[in-house]
Amino acid sequence: MFSQMFLFSNVVNCFFHCHYLDLVPGMIKNVVTEGAFDSISVTWTGEPEDKNGDILYFTVYWSEDGQVPESDNVTDGDETYTIRGLKPITEYIIQVSATTSVGEGPKSNETAESTRTGREYEELTPLFWGLLDMFG
Prior knowledge:
single chain; 136 residues; alpha+beta; Immunoglobulin-like
């Protein structure tokens, strides 16, 4: 009877304690962004310092200042993602996190990046102002 209680006690103890020995991954530290007309490319180099298991996927978060963030998961092992369909000439806040079977780690530090005007817009602007001067 004593040995059965001892075994049960060890199983319960391991259930509560062994599970928590696995931790979520640490923070992604090397996030680089580059803005384009209506997109922002996000690249992160390397896994977090405290990997704490196999990385299942990365999550890229983005938002305009003060807005609720949108996100997408990167599951193909890449360490790059392009956020598409953004508003031109707008600043976005970007963050990246890693997830293991235990859960999601903390988000990276915020990185601010702006979308650009786009070459097409820059080429049409003088034409627009010229027409406005002619007919305005």
